[in-house]
Protein backbone atom coordinates (compact mmCIF):
# COMPACT_ATOMS: atom_id res chain seq x y z
CA UNK A 1 0.00 0.00 0.00
CA UNK A 2 0.89 3.67 -0.08
CA UNK A 3 2.74 5.74 -2.64
CA UNK A 4 6.24 7.05 -3.34
CA UNK A 5 6.84 10.53 -4.72
CA UNK A 6 9.89 11.72 -6.64
CA UNK A 7 10.14 15.45 -7.18
CA UNK A 8 12.43 18.17 -8.45
CA UNK A 9 11.61 21.15 -6.21
CA UNK A 10 13.15 23.81 -8.46
CA UNK A 11 13.61 23.02 -12.12
CA UNK A 12 15.45 25.93 -13.73
CA UNK A 13 17.56 27.00 -10.75
CA UNK A 14 20.23 28.42 -13.07
CA UNK A 15 17.76 30.93 -14.55
CA UNK A 16 16.19 32.19 -11.30
CA UNK A 17 18.45 35.25 -11.20
CA UNK A 18 17.31 36.29 -14.68
CA UNK A 19 13.65 36.06 -13.59
CA UNK A 20 12.76 33.42 -16.18
CA UNK A 21 9.91 30.99 -15.57
CA UNK A 22 10.85 28.03 -13.35
CA UNK A 23 8.91 25.09 -11.99
CA UNK A 24 8.50 22.00 -9.84
CA UNK A 25 8.12 18.42 -11.12
CA UNK A 26 6.34 15.55 -9.34
CA UNK A 27 6.00 11.85 -10.15
CA UNK A 28 3.89 9.46 -8.05
CA UNK A 29 4.40 5.69 -8.03
CA UNK A 30 2.44 3.04 -6.13
CA UNK A 31 4.27 1.21 -3.35
CA UNK A 32 7.56 1.96 -1.65
CA UNK A 33 10.07 1.54 -4.50
CA UNK A 34 11.46 4.09 -6.95
CA UNK A 35 13.92 1.75 -8.68
CA UNK A 36 13.04 -1.27 -10.77
CA UNK A 37 9.95 0.60 -11.97
CA UNK A 38 9.12 2.49 -15.16
CA UNK A 39 7.56 5.85 -15.88
CA UNK A 40 4.55 3.96 -17.17
CA UNK A 41 3.97 2.64 -13.63
CA UNK A 42 3.17 6.14 -12.37
CA UNK A 43 -0.32 6.77 -11.05
CA UNK A 44 0.02 10.55 -11.32
CA UNK A 45 2.42 13.28 -12.37
CA UNK A 46 2.35 17.05 -12.11
CA UNK A 47 4.33 20.22 -12.59
CA UNK A 48 4.04 23.67 -11.07
CA UNK A 49 4.91 26.58 -13.35
CA UNK A 50 5.96 29.88 -11.74
CA UNK A 51 5.99 32.71 -14.27
CA UNK A 52 3.70 35.63 -15.17
CA UNK A 53 0.98 33.21 -14.12
CA UNK A 54 1.20 30.45 -11.51
CA UNK A 55 -0.25 27.26 -12.91
CA UNK A 56 -0.37 23.59 -11.94
CA UNK A 57 -0.58 20.85 -14.57
CA UNK A 58 -1.59 17.36 -13.48
CA UNK A 59 -2.38 13.98 -15.04
CA UNK A 60 -3.88 10.92 -13.36
CA UNK A 61 -3.53 7.35 -14.60
CA UNK A 62 -7.27 6.64 -14.72
CA UNK A 63 -8.37 10.10 -15.88
CA UNK A 64 -8.16 11.09 -19.57
CA UNK A 65 -6.02 14.05 -20.57
CA UNK A 66 -3.72 16.49 -18.84
CA UNK A 67 -5.31 19.27 -16.81
CA UNK A 68 -4.17 22.85 -16.15
CA UNK A 69 -5.18 24.86 -13.08
CA UNK A 70 -4.58 28.60 -12.63
CA UNK A 71 -3.88 30.23 -9.24
CA UNK A 72 -6.22 33.21 -8.87
CA UNK A 73 -5.48 36.40 -6.93
CA UNK A 74 -7.75 35.32 -4.07
CA UNK A 75 -5.74 32.13 -3.60
CA UNK A 76 -8.18 29.73 -5.27
CA UNK A 77 -7.36 27.38 -8.15
CA UNK A 78 -9.40 27.50 -11.36
CA UNK A 79 -9.47 24.65 -13.87
CA UNK A 80 -8.67 26.36 -17.19
CA UNK A 81 -7.69 23.70 -19.73
CA UNK A 82 -7.87 20.03 -20.67
CA UNK A 83 -5.37 18.75 -23.21
CA UNK A 84 -6.00 15.44 -24.96
CA UNK A 85 -4.30 16.02 -28.32
CA UNK A 86 -0.85 17.24 -29.34
CA UNK A 87 -1.02 18.16 -33.01
CA UNK A 88 1.53 19.20 -35.60
CA UNK A 89 3.11 22.64 -35.60
CA UNK A 90 6.49 24.20 -36.33
CA UNK A 91 7.76 25.09 -32.85
CA UNK A 92 10.99 23.72 -31.38
CA UNK A 93 12.96 23.83 -28.13
CA UNK A 94 16.46 22.42 -28.72
CA UNK A 95 18.28 21.69 -25.46
CA UNK A 96 21.95 20.78 -25.08
CA UNK A 97 22.89 22.36 -28.40
CA UNK A 98 26.59 21.87 -27.61
CA UNK A 99 25.97 18.22 -28.56
CA UNK A 100 25.58 19.25 -32.21
CA UNK A 101 29.37 19.75 -32.32
CA UNK A 102 30.09 16.01 -32.22
CA UNK A 103 26.68 14.47 -32.86
CA UNK A 104 26.14 15.00 -36.60
CA UNK A 105 22.65 13.51 -36.52
CA UNK A 106 21.49 16.02 -33.91
CA UNK A 107 23.13 18.76 -35.95
CA UNK A 108 21.17 17.54 -38.98
CA UNK A 109 17.92 17.61 -37.01
CA UNK A 110 18.44 21.14 -35.69
CA UNK A 111 19.37 22.36 -39.17
CA UNK A 112 16.15 20.82 -40.46
CA UNK A 113 14.15 22.89 -37.97
CA UNK A 114 15.94 26.05 -39.06
CA UNK A 115 15.62 25.29 -42.78
CA UNK A 116 11.90 24.58 -42.42
CA UNK A 117 11.42 27.87 -40.53
CA UNK A 118 10.29 26.43 -37.21
CA UNK A 119 9.66 29.00 -34.49
CA UNK A 120 12.32 28.83 -31.76
CA UNK A 121 10.81 28.80 -28.25
CA UNK A 122 13.51 27.86 -25.74
CA UNK A 123 14.02 29.28 -22.24
CA UNK A 124 16.60 26.93 -20.75
CA UNK A 125 13.99 25.73 -18.24
CA UNK A 126 12.64 22.25 -18.87
CA UNK A 127 9.27 22.87 -17.20
CA UNK A 128 8.26 25.93 -19.28
CA UNK A 129 9.67 24.42 -22.47
CA UNK A 130 7.65 21.22 -22.03
CA UNK A 131 4.59 23.01 -20.67
CA UNK A 132 4.28 25.07 -23.85
CA UNK A 133 3.80 21.86 -25.87
CA UNK A 134 0.78 21.03 -23.70
CA UNK A 135 -0.62 24.58 -23.72
CA UNK A 136 -0.02 25.24 -27.44
CA UNK A 137 -0.83 21.61 -28.33
CA UNK A 138 2.10 21.40 -30.76
CA UNK A 139 5.88 21.41 -31.01
CA UNK A 140 8.98 19.44 -30.06
CA UNK A 141 11.42 19.55 -27.13
CA UNK A 142 14.79 17.83 -27.55
CA UNK A 143 17.73 17.26 -25.24
CA UNK A 144 20.25 15.03 -27.00
CA UNK A 145 23.63 13.71 -25.90
CA UNK A 146 26.98 13.33 -27.66
CA UNK A 147 30.40 11.87 -26.81
CA UNK A 148 31.39 15.12 -25.09
CA UNK A 149 27.97 16.43 -24.00
CA UNK A 150 26.66 13.80 -21.61
CA UNK A 151 23.08 13.31 -20.42
CA UNK A 152 22.05 15.66 -17.61
CA UNK A 153 18.31 15.07 -17.27
CA UNK A 154 17.28 12.62 -14.56
CA UNK A 155 14.90 9.86 -15.58
CA UNK A 156 13.18 9.55 -12.19
CA UNK A 157 12.87 13.19 -11.16
CA UNK A 158 12.35 14.94 -14.49
CA UNK A 159 12.08 12.84 -17.64
CA UNK A 160 9.54 10.20 -16.56
CA UNK A 161 7.05 12.56 -14.85
CA UNK A 162 7.10 14.99 -17.78
CA UNK A 163 6.80 12.06 -20.18
CA UNK A 164 3.68 10.96 -18.31
CA UNK A 165 2.17 14.45 -18.64
CA UNK A 166 2.99 14.67 -22.36
CA UNK A 167 1.67 11.22 -23.22
CA UNK A 168 -1.53 11.72 -21.20
CA UNK A 169 -1.98 14.96 -23.18
CA UNK A 170 -1.91 12.98 -26.43
CA UNK A 171 1.75 13.50 -27.29
CA UNK A 172 4.72 11.16 -27.43
CA UNK A 173 8.11 10.83 -25.75
CA UNK A 174 11.34 9.14 -26.79
CA UNK A 175 14.91 8.46 -25.75
CA UNK A 176 15.65 7.86 -29.43
CA UNK A 177 14.42 4.28 -29.54
CA UNK A 178 11.53 3.91 -27.09
CA UNK A 179 9.06 5.87 -25.00
CA UNK A 180 10.73 7.19 -21.86
CA UNK A 181 7.81 5.63 -19.96
CA UNK A 182 9.13 2.18 -20.97
CA UNK A 183 12.62 2.75 -19.55
CA UNK A 184 13.32 0.86 -16.32
CA UNK A 185 14.65 3.18 -13.62
CA UNK A 186 17.66 1.26 -12.32
CA UNK A 187 19.28 4.06 -10.29
CA UNK A 188 17.85 7.12 -8.54
CA UNK A 189 20.27 9.41 -10.39
CA UNK A 190 20.01 7.72 -13.81
CA UNK A 191 20.29 10.20 -16.70
CA UNK A 192 18.99 10.07 -20.27
CA UNK A 193 18.44 12.02 -23.45
CA UNK A 194 14.84 12.76 -24.35
CA UNK A 195 12.39 14.27 -26.81
CA UNK A 196 8.74 15.21 -26.28
CA UNK A 197 6.27 16.26 -28.94
CA UNK A 198 3.68 15.27 -31.50
CA UNK A 199 3.73 11.88 -33.20
CA UNK A 200 5.31 13.11 -36.43
CA UNK A 201 7.95 15.11 -34.57
CA UNK A 202 8.96 12.06 -32.53
CA UNK A 203 9.08 9.97 -35.71
CA UNK A 204 11.39 12.58 -37.23
CA UNK A 205 13.52 12.63 -34.07
CA UNK A 206 13.95 8.84 -33.95
CA UNK A 207 14.53 8.42 -37.69
CA UNK A 208 17.10 11.20 -37.86
CA UNK A 209 19.08 9.98 -34.85
CA UNK A 210 18.76 6.21 -35.33
CA UNK A 211 17.47 5.56 -38.85
CA UNK A 212 14.05 4.17 -37.93
CA UNK A 213 11.08 4.85 -35.68
CA UNK A 214 8.80 2.49 -33.75
CA UNK A 215 5.94 4.94 -34.49
CA UNK A 216 6.45 5.20 -38.24
CA UNK A 217 4.46 3.61 -41.01
CA UNK A 218 6.22 2.87 -44.30
CA UNK A 219 7.04 6.46 -45.26
CA UNK A 220 9.77 8.52 -43.62
CA UNK A 221 9.33 12.16 -42.70
CA UNK A 222 11.33 15.30 -42.25
CA UNK A 223 15.08 15.38 -41.97
CA UNK A 224 15.58 11.83 -43.24
CA UNK A 225 13.26 12.13 -46.24
TrEMBL record:
Domain of life: Eukaryota
Pathway: Carbohydrate biosynthesis; Calvin cycle
Cofactor(s) this protein cannot do without: Mg(2+)
An annotated GO cellular component: cytoplasm
Keyword Magnesium: yes
Listed Pfam families: FBPase, FBPase_C
Gene3D superfamilies from the UniProt entry: 3.40.190.80, Fructose-1,6-Bisphosphatase, subunit A, domain 1
Fructose-1-6-bisphosphatase class 1 C-terminal domain segment(s): 88-208
Domain Fructose-1-6-bisphosphatase class I N-terminal: 1-81
Single GO MF descriptor: fructose 1,6-bisphosphate 1-phosphatase activity
Keywords linked to the UniProt accession: Carbohydrate metabolism, Hydrolase, Magnesium, Metal-binding
Protein name, UniProt field: Uncharacterized protein
Amino acid sequence: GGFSVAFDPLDGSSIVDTNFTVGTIFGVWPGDKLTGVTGGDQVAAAMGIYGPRTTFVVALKDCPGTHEFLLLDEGKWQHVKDTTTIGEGKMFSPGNLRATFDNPDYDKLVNYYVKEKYTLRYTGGMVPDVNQIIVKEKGIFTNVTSPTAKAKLRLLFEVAPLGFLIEKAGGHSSDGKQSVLDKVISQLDERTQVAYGSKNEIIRFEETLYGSSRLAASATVGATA
